[in-house]
Amino acid sequence: MQPITFLFLSISTLFGSLSSQPIDGRGNVVIDQGDFSIHDFNIDTSWTYSSFAEVLGKPNRKLNYAESYDSLGMAIVVGSITSNHHTVNVVSEIEIHFSKDPDYSTEDHLPKSYYKRSIIIDGFMLSNFTPYKELKAATPQYNWKVSFIDAFKGDYKGIYIYAHYNDAETELYSVAIGRSDD
Question: In principle, which of 23, 66, 112, 128 could form an S-S bond with 98, CB 3.0–4.6 Å?
Answer without folding.
Answer: 128
